[in-house]
């Protein structure tokens, strides 16, 4: 088995880059939407054969066992080449939880099925009354014989209509003294009576999100991961790395590149006002990269990230939005037109990048929530 | 030693430098000292200049074989940030970036080098001129037969300097000359700046001066020194911005309205966070720019990097100091609270050597030129 961490950063980057460039299908590069599994299945099989489905998992569970520094490189190369993350909820979220908190049986059963995509997972955290305020969730799971019986509703469940299983936070003790207590982490099959999935069409016309309704749906008791009523602390324990990932410069960098070629084709740079606003946006991205590097260095030194990493997400997502707004401005009268616009020999879908930028300030904890975190944990402002 | 070890020992040197500069300024009285000096009519503290020199501050970016510490602009930036934190009026950035920047490139053996590094003197640099409408104009100040005629504008550090390094014209092209502050035929018109410092308008009528260097080298050295100073001014703005936020946070944590500290209101918290994020981005961007400049020699590459730094620092400092006043409420508008000193200093540093719009243009044009060349 290869010890990737023993390679130099440059060697490792080269290896990853070569694989992506040689093997990733051209037509799937920079996909504008979240693909259904069937669309990327072929690529997934290749990754699986290579043993590269789960870069962060320890090698004993079939992962690459990458340390933080190598992991950042892996993701950077993935984003640089426009490699779709595929259906990675299993790998990114439920897998690490099972690895950390699951029983031997749970590990043996679920982990290989995640890697092979035999099971395709979706995440059931948010509810209509519990988005950023997750502790407010109301979906109930009650023990009945050998099963949990689930009742309630989840929302913003990404790609639930293309999933076989859902991992969810559910309330198992409604009488717990604090809202954060009495919540458990549960795995459940989707294919059963009592689970109803309804897709939600987004502003851009895509169906990425779903609502999932549970009406006396059942899941065996052995599908409880970790201790009963301890789901909240478990779910929170795994957020640290995701928080630098969500603040990475890639989305904004790609959009800036698109803006530049589009605006050039449209002659927008003849306007000094546009030039200044483009320069502002470009420098916003460049200086964000300097800040990002500071946090990445922290990870590379083996330190854990503090709450201050939230500032990356705030800055880069808002910057991404400004860039996509400039794209619309540069399009002039075409700024409201759906579909690709041909400019010279490039074709740019102005609205698709605009829409893509909208949820970035909402998901992963809205930017307002990130600001609340920073004000308390970093600036020490009073409650 | 691996690459990482070398990097971290450099980081460690910079950290120690930062600590000693901070201690020195805090012991001297922090930002209270800035207020006292301003109220005493501007200028700076010669004793402080000597103490800074003892700590190696002025020679920090001068190569070791020229009597400096050879630590580069990144180290200069560390000191500039500390100067900004306490808005020290001493000519630190001016000396590191401009006067020593010129001399070390043009006449490193001149005795004034050692005197500047040793904090025995300070020299202001007179290189810009004002056109009839008040805007910057091409150089017309002339030097011939050992004498200067004409005038110079926006001379920072004109008050308190023992002499002037003047970039003038002569028949063979540009020339760098040295004139004493009390030279015959030199009139200094002091224009008071927002922070209480003065910007000197100089006029020369047959003022005696000594030639230091001549020819194209003067123009090249001037441009490079100005670029260095631009980046250092950005670092000073970053230090100033960081401290302005700290002062504001202290204030909103204690100031009560409606029986609560105003810092507990979400709208105030979010604004404070935005200022903090802006400041962190500026700090990271400016520090990265200075480090990049240290590893680059080509002026075509270094110039836009310095512009990137100044554009970022000015944008951040403007927003931070203005919002800091707002967050202080009415007292922020009074001279009794320190936050106003920071706003005023930011105004002066932002205007000096080009504001953010100007530097974005320089940066963008360099980017275009590079794109066209490829």
TrEMBL record, chain A:
A molecular function (GO) held by this record is:
flavin adenine dinucleotide binding
Q: What is its EC number?
A: 1.3.99.-
Query: Could you tell me which residue ranges the Acyl-CoA dehydrogenase/oxidase N-terminal domain spans?
Result: 11-117
Gene Ontology annotations for the cellular component aspect, listed alphabetically:
plasma membrane
Q: Which Pfam families match?
A: Acyl-CoA_dh_1, Acyl-CoA_dh_M, Acyl-CoA_dh_N
Q: Where is the Acyl-CoA dehydrogenase/oxidase C-terminal domain?
A: 229-378
What InterPro entries does the database record attribute to this sequence? Answer: Acyl-CoA_Oxase/DH_mid-dom (IPR006091), Acyl-CoA_Oxase/DH_mid-dom_sf (IPR046373), AcylCo_DH-like_C (IPR036250), AcylCo_DH/oxidase_C (IPR009075), AcylCoA_DH/ox_N (IPR013786), AcylCoA_DH/ox_N_sf (IPR037069), AcylCoA_DH/oxidase_NM_dom_sf (IPR009100), Mycobact_Acyl-CoA_DH (IPR052161)
Q: So which domain of life are we looking at?
A: Bacteria
Q: Where is the Acyl-CoA oxidase/dehydrogenase middle domain?
A: 122-216
SUPFAM superfamilies, sorted: Acyl-CoA dehydrogenase C-terminal domain-like, Acyl-CoA dehydrogenase NM domain-like
Key word Ubl conjugation present in the record?
no
Query: Which residues fall in a coiled-coil region?
Result: none
Q: What are its cofactors?
A: FAD
Swiss-Prot/TrEMBL keywords: FAD, Flavoprotein, Oxidoreductase, Plasmid
Q: Which family does it belong to?
A: Belongs to the acyl-CoA dehydrogenase family.
Descriptive protein name = Acyl-CoA dehydrogenase
Organism of origin: Roseovarius indicus
Q: What is the lineage of its organism?
A: Bacteria, Pseudomonadati, Pseudomonadota, Alphaproteobacteria, Rhodobacterales
From TrEMBL, chain B:
| UniProt keyword annotations, A-Z | FAD, Flavoprotein, Oxidoreductase, Plasmid
Necessary cofactors? FAD
**Where in this chain does the record put each Acyl-CoA dehydrogenase/oxidase N-terminal domain?**
12-101
Entry superkingdom? Bacteria
Cross-referenced InterPro entries, in alphabetical order?
Answer: Acyl-CoA_Oxase/DH_mid-dom_sf (IPR046373), AcylCo_DH-like_C (IPR036250), AcylCo_DH/oxidase_C (IPR009075), AcylCoA_DH/ox_N (IPR013786), AcylCoA_DH/ox_N_sf (IPR037069), AcylCoA_DH/oxidase_NM_dom_sf (IPR009100)
An MF annotation (GO) of this entry: acyl-CoA dehydrogenase activity
Per the record, the similarity remark reads: Belongs to the acyl-CoA dehydrogenase family.
This chain belongs to which protein, by name? Answer: Acyl-CoA dehydrogenase
Question: What is the phylogenetic placement of the source species in the record?
Answer: Bacteria, Pseudomonadati, Pseudomonadota, Alphaproteobacteria, Rhodobacterales
Q: Which gene encodes it?
A: acdA_18
